[in-house]
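Hi P.,

Sorry for the delay on this. The queue was packed all week, but I finally got your sequence through. Input first:
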Amino acid sequence: MSGGRPFSIIYNLISRGPKTILCDFSHYTGNFQQISIKILEFVKKGRKGKINYDDKSIFYYEEKSDIIYLTLVQGDFSNIKDEHFFSLLIDIQNSFKERYTLREIFQSYAYQLKDFSRLIQPIVNFYEEKVNYVKQGCLNNEDNQRVEILNENIDDLLKAQSSGTPWTFVELNVNKIQKNINIEINSEEKIESEMSVKFQRIKEKKQRKRKNKYILLGIFLILVIIIIILCIKL
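Then the structure:
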């Protein structure tokens, strides 16, 4: 945790079913990505829920139409409402649906939509700063009835596991902090910006060549027409 905040949003992912990760985002590095992928196996269809992983780590999720939105949070949850993190998931979900069509979402292969990670970052930053922010009706369904939130512990889920690859509890650790990752992201953005300028210059150069070719062709045709007219007069 940083800046005196009571919690840190460690990791976010969007998955089609439990097997196909479409995109993810984190300020940190650690083994939480592998653990999160296993957590997807316990997500209930058409539900919102939270899975208590250890004393300081909770996975919040929402599954809707085979798309899973999941976030991992670490910190002190004694004075933080669950609605805050479900609001985060709603904002990510709305932004994701605005960015991509259903066709793109359901035909994409793993990590094909990874460019959406850049849009997750400002949402995460907002919810880390506005620690008491809650969207109105974030836990209501379409009929404005309050949704029941599944509250489960990883120990109970592991004991009840009856399908898939057996998996025991793994200690979750977070290694690298936000600042280092931001440097990497900014560096990547700089490279993409430079590439964009380079391609734009190449495009403009091709357009000039094409324009010059049309001008020369026009001059040639005019000369041909003049020669034909002179020949006819002679």
